[in-house]
Write a structure and sequence with these properties.
CATH superfamily of the largest domain: P-loop containing nucleotide triphosphate hydrolases
Shape: elongated
Number of domains: 2
CATH architecture of the largest domain: 3-Layer(aba) Sandwich
Order of helices and strands: HHEEEHEEEEHHHEHEHEEEH
Helix content: 25-40%
Strand order of the largest sheet: 6-9-10-3-11-12
Distance between the termini: 68 Å
Number of helices: 9
CATH class of the largest domain: Alpha Beta
Structural class: alpha/beta
Oligomer: single chain
CATH topology of the largest domain: Rossmann fold
Radius of gyration: 30 Å
Amino acid sequence: MNRLFRIGYCLFRLWTHDITYGTMTLFLQQRSNLSSAFNNVISIIPSFLNSSISAHRIRELVELPREVHIPESAELDALAQNGFTVQMQDLSFAYVEGTNVITDSRFVARPGEIVDLIGPSGEGKTTMIRLILGLVCPQSGRALIRAADGTEVTMNAETRHLFAYVPQGNTILSGTIAENMRTVKEDATDEEIIEALKIACAWDFVAKMPDTINAKAGERGRGFSEGQAQRIAIARAVLRDAPVLLLDAATSALDVTTERRVLRNIMQQKPNKTCIVTTHRPSVLNLCQRVYRVVDTRVTELSEEESARMAMDF
């Protein structure tokens, strides 16, 4: 529309003999050059904003607090055979100052135990996992790991290798099942992989595949159901054979019978393993030595009667 207006205006001035044809041609040419230059200047603004946002994000990453490293944590490696106790004492934590996610709470999970964390979505179960892994530090209280001989170390980056963590969602990578398994143990033999798959009840379907453990998986487990992908992910954690196993809603796609079989198999594999489960459904409550409920920022232990009643309700 603007272009037609400019041409029409020039033709009118030419018709009234106010300008010559050459003047009109020069006007239109310079107007086009000016418009192009103006558009180039304007295009700099989005690029500048994108660069500014990128620089801000980089600065946020650089300014993140450094992870805590406690050199004494190395002493725990020699004590792993007898398992570890995971404990929180009078712990409070907030992502934003003044808004607690966890308040003055206690928690304990000992070797040979399955401990369940239940509660509504968004109440702090995953935050508890982050505290256990030492990914975040409490504002008050302690999150610690204790060996059988009484050696205690506060959770930090150096204790993280003592945990095998299976998060929510699909964590299967593109490649064969064996390649996925060996991401946690490069020198694992085929026999060790098959044994881990059996413990996680994944061998039931893997054995029926033409290539078994060499069967291909697509990105994010394409080609497998959600329940099959979860069992492969659990098998990978079993192969890792860490003293503490964290399952963050990692059995949500399994039926109740398979879920119970998997947990029983894991504890039979290594009696001194500590297993912590977060779940939205209390179908495994009677397998747990203790059940903690996360609600209204507090972690409280349920009594046997409360656990039994909750199990019956579901």
